[in-house]
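dumping this here before i forget
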Amino acid sequence: MSLVDEKLETLLEIVELENGDLAIRRAEDEESEPLMVVGFSDELRETLEEKCIEVGRMMLTAGIHMVAESGHNLSPVNEPVVETLPTIH
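structure:
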């Protein structure tokens, strides 16, 4: 999965964390904090069985699509954000 910006492309991956939660993180930075995490209770894990991972993937994918459609950029950029003031004529 990737989010494409006019200048940047961020590759994201869905991973299973040590505690069993599913997360989205930047593919190039395995040590960074996950951008989004989905967790299930033990009761729901037992109910869903092997479908639990698929449900979590669908939830994470939907979340990332919503972020992308909102125009937010998840690329790690070290450049300061410069706000342009409106021009008054």
